């Protein structure tokens, strides 16, 4: 491992790291927003409402992200209806496809996390709210969701780390994220050990920073204090 | 909708067989690594503890795809050196071997945590009873801890196996001819990406659904005689 090599290629890899971060940020934020209604539906007492998002979740959790990514990026081009539509300029872009697929993928996982969290909210607290005359919607907004957010936060932070690692797949659709950059550098220098090692270190540092960030968030939201029943 | 695979059916089926072989081989390696990792992490020896901890944190922090690439491309020169030493020219890891090692390594890192949790869940009294009866430490582990540990670790390992099953698709990146690779080959000749990737998706769905059924059966079998606590 030579310093010269590191100094020469580290800027390129860090440039890839910004792309990785962008992809992950879009996916986990948009995924969370999409997952909230889905998670609520999954936790519903009505079996028909509950079954509705099931097929979506089953498909996205049961197939590899790589297959989903190829379906969106390469697969959609098979249909003339799509290549002639107004959406095509976006669906042609690898970045848009990767962000879209990662969002759809993580939505399924976050929805399941939310379902578990909503079901773990103590029944008594919801009943207390209802007894005080809160409507069902109000109880959901003021009691169930804030409580579920704290219960689900540790699992959500795990999902963010998993998405950080899953974002490496963006390199298979020509994007130059950390892994994509490393593959390009490897093709040019033929120094696979060093290149992939440095890329790995960057991922480690990023996941470490994310873990610490979520620890701070957990402290701010007083997750530990609200777990007692 | 009638599905026309244009003669690629057998190739895809062969790919599925390869995927299953890859997943099961990686599972075997991963279980061994996980057990060793958990033993190291719970051992009183500080160096071993550090080794186990470093293994599980390091491997879990780096993407699976990067491990596949690192093991496949990163071992070329060292494998050649080893081959040179033993007089075998051009020794190198096949894509299958690299895939098994990379996926087994990742499975093992997560399994370390699952096994460690399971070991800690076994009442201390059982171990002390073994000591009182004069069993050696290794016999206590094999005869007392292991049989009880499986039952507790099974749900966690099942989840990991599902993840492993889906991660096998990553090995197509280094050219192993499994489901995904065969789908890619079919796409280049037929120009029907959606059809073939959808077929691949349903093959993976079938495999995950089957392993879900198998795991439920295993869990039922393992918990015979244990009453589920009402939660």
Word description of this protein:
The complex is a heterodimer of chains A (229) and B (231). Chain A is an all-alpha fold. Chain A has one domain: MetI-like (MetI-like fold). Chain A is 78% helix and 0% strand. Chain A is built from 11 helices and no strands. In chain A, helix 1 packs across helix 7 (94-120). Chain A is flat and about 70 Å long. Chain A starts with a helix and ends in a 9-residue tail after the last helix. The model of chain B has no long low-confidence stretch (mean pLDDT 89). In chain B, helix 1 crosses helix 5 and helix 5 (95-120) packs across helix 7 (137-167). Chain B has one domain (11-222): MetI-like (MetI-like fold, Orthogonal Bundle), CATH 1.10.3720.10. Chain B has helices at residues 9-42, 46-60, 64-74, 76-85, 95-120, 124-132, 137-167, 179-190, 193-222. Helix content of chain B is 77%, strand content 0%. The chains are: A mainly alpha (229), B mainly alpha (231).
* Structural class category of chain A: mainly alpha
* CATH fold assignment of chain B: MetI-like fold
How many domains of chain A?
1
Q: How confident overall, as mean pLDDT of chain B?
A: 89
Mean pLDDT of chain A: 89
Percent of residues of chain B in helical segments? Answer: over 70%
Tell me the overall shape of chain A.
flat
Largest sheet of chain A: none
Tell me the total number of β-strands of chain A. Answer: 0
Low-confidence stretches of chain B: none
**pLDDT below 50 for ≥5 consecutive residues: which ranges of chain A?**
none
Largest sheet data of chain B = none
End-to-end Cα distance of chain B, whole Å, is: 45 Å
- CATH architecture identity of chain B: Orthogonal Bundle
- The CATH class of chain B, by name, is Mainly Alpha
**CATH architecture term of chain A:** Orthogonal Bundle
């Amino acid at each position: 491992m030579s310093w010269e090599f590191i100094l020469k290629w580290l800027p390129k890899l860090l440039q890839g790291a910004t792309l990785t971060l962008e992809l992950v940020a879009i996916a986990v934020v948009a995924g969370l927003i999409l997952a909230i209604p889905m998670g609520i539906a999954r936790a519903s007492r009505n079996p028909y409402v509950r079954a509705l998002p099931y097929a979506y979740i089953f498909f996205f959790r049961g197939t590899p992200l790589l297959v989903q990514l190829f379906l969106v990026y390469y697969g959609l081009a098979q249909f003339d209806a799509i290549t002639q539509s107004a959406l095509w300029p976006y669906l042609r872009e690898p970045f848009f496809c990767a962000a879209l697929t990662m969002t759809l993928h993580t939505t399924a996982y976050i929805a399941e996390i939310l379902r578990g969290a909503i079901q773990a909210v103590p029944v008594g607290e919801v009943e207390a709210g209802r007894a005080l005359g809160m409507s069902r919607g109000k109880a959901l907004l003021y009691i169930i969701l804030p409580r579920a957010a704290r219960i689900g936060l540790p699992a959500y932070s795990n999902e963010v780390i998993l998405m950080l690692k899953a974002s490496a797949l963006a390199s298979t659709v020509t994007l130059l994220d950390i892994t994509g950059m490393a593959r390009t550098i490897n093709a040019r220098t033929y120094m696979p050990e060093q290149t992939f090692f440095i890329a790995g270190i960057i991922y480690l540092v990023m996941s470490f920073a994310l873990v610490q960030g979520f620890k701070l968030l957990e402290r701010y939201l007083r997750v530990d204090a609200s777990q007692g029943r | 909708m009638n599905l026309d695979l244009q003669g690629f059916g057998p190739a895809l089926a062969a790919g599925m067989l390869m995927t299953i072989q890859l997943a099961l081989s990686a599972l075997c390696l991963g279980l061994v690594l996980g057990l060793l990792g958990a033993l190291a992490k719970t051992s009183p020896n500080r160096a071993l503890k550090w080794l186990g901890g470093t293994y599980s944190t390091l491997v879990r922090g780096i993407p699976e795809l990067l491990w596949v690439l690192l093991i496949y491309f990163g071992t070329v020169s060292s494998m050649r050196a080893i081959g040179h030493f033993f007089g075998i020219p051009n020794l190198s890891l096949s894509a299958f071997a690299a895939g098994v090692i990379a996926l087994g390594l990742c499975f093992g890192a997560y399994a370390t945590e699952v096994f460690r949790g399971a070991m800690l869940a076994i009442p201390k009294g059982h171990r002390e009873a073994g000591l009182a009866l004069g069993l050696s430490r290794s016999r206590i582990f094999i005869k007392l801890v292991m049989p009880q540990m499986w039952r507790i670790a099974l749900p966690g390992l099942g989840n990991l196996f599902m993840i492993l099953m889906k991660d096998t698709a990553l090995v197509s990146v280094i050219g192993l001819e499994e489901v995904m690779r065969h789908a890619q080959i079919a796409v280049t000749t037929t120009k029907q990406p959606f059809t073939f990737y959808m077929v691949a998706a349903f093959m993976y769905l079938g495999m995950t659904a089957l392993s879900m059924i198998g795991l439920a059966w295993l869990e039922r079998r393992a918990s015979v005689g244990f009453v589920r606590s009402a939660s």
